[in-house]
Amino acid sequence: MTGPIIREDFREILRLVKPGSRVLDVGCGEGALLELLVQRNQVDGRGLEISPEGVSACLARGLAVVQGDADRDLDYFPAKAFDYVILSQTLQAMQNPRHVLGELLRIADKAVVSLPNFGHWRVRLDLLLHGRMPITGVLPEPWWATPNIHLCTVRDFSEICDDLGLSIDASAALAAGKPARPMNAANNVENWRAEAALFLLSRKS
Amino acid sequence: MTLAETAQADQHNGGVMTFAADQPLKLDSGGRIDGLQVAYMTYGRLNADRSNAILVCHALSLDQYVASSHPLTGRRAWWRTLVGPGLPLDPDKHFIICSNVVGGCMGSTGPSSINPATGAPWGLAFPVITIADMVRAQAMLVDALGVKTLFAVVGGSMGGMQVLQWAADYPDRIFAAVCIAAAARHSAQNIAFHEVGRQAIMADPDWRGGDYAAQGVRPEKGLAVARMAAHITYLSEPALHRKFGRELQSDGLSWGFDADFQVESYLRHQGASFVDRFDANSYLYITRAMDYFDLAASRNGVLADVFRPARDVRFCVFSFTSDWLYPTVESRAIVRALNAAAARVSFVEIDSDKGHDAFLLEEPVLREALGGFMSSAAHSRGLDADASL
User: Fold this and answer.
1) What is the CATH architecture of B3-185+294-386?
2) Looking at chain A, which residue has its C-alpha nearest residue B321?
3) Is the ipTM of this complex over 0.90?
4) For the whole model, what pTM was predicted?
């Protein structure tokens, strides 16, 4: 494939999202993923982004993006307004991730959620050996500067999905610079192996 | 006039559209205006398939001279930050229409026009008008100019209210809608400020129950005070402080009630220059129209229901952090209703300390974001393939 270098998690999302569908990207930043989805998958794409700079960059790209806060503003979207809602590396920075997760699958049929895995062996080892909040490739900031206020493990995430009546239809392990690797989120070994993880969710019928 | 100015002036057209008696303007109040006149300006040229027209809606105290100087006062084009060659609204690409609102005093029918029944100015016999009436008159003008569908309707403040009204009343006639520093209804605080202005005008002995024109006087003092009070609401505390602080006009205090402070002198100037270009009764009628504005009132207060027929329109909504007249919360209510109606909406809250007036001033983020929105809308409309007008 030619063209710009695509982040591996973006590539996996492009693979999961059906062409021509309606997509909301929550925390869309400057619109890099949303633009790819519009161009390559011909989706009807919308974005929600908290920073005015991000929203302006999205508008310049021709994307329809609303400045807002996922913690509060998802409540105002009607039910089933989208086929997919995407939350890429953002859930752990939410004030109320449980509420946000529920909202995602109220406004869309499917949700694509990716997050850093706090159960990764390097995180566990770092805490065990040094007794300090771990700093790793996917968690680069010190505890006092990190936006990640609600970190969780793959196992935690699987459990909250179960709690909320959500089913994990597909999951993949992510690592910087490596292709996404399909995984079984229920397998405890993956909770050690995956540096970050991506999930395709739907509501259990 | 320089060569460049002459070249640009060639693209300007304007005049007054007079509608025949069989085309009255029907009013929300139940009344009607026969022989309606709409004063307007256009900039740029309408393309062959008539798809590049943009209607700009003006704010309370402005007029149709959005991109050219005011013929009476010589004031420069009022939206020169956004309308002009190379800017988001570009007369080299778009056919830009701007008309004086009905009820105004720059050539459109208003309270200072002659009442055909009496041969004298209407004064308070003029019917109360609404934002929807203003928009209905604009639609008549757009029709008369041969434009079926507008590429965009754009406005700030009261102009933004008109944009929302267009979306509510003519969703099939607009492709894109840009609403800047506005609200879907006038707040109690805004009604309150308007009432101060109206009472100042009515308290002027020269107002004469609105009949001042026939009696050869003008309530200049009252109108000036109304403008002074309103002008404060267009700024912000930081903007006033930055501009004037507590600076004095001269070396010491006067120990009296002259304009000691620069901010006083500035406000007095604002008031005094306003009366040269604005009619007091128009001020009463237009502020009333804004006070009556409540877009969701006809839909049991559910704004999303108003926007549901407009879900194919591309909306872009802007607010400014320091605007306390039309604060961000008002724009957010519009955006939430548009989302609930599954409309295609973008929204940016721009960080500015210039208050409500920011929409008329140099704001690079506004210009760039609006430029991005307009060019992507033009692309979807197939306008960029049409560069050779």
Assistant:
1) 3-Layer(aba) Sandwich (3.40)
2) A52
3) no
4) 0.91
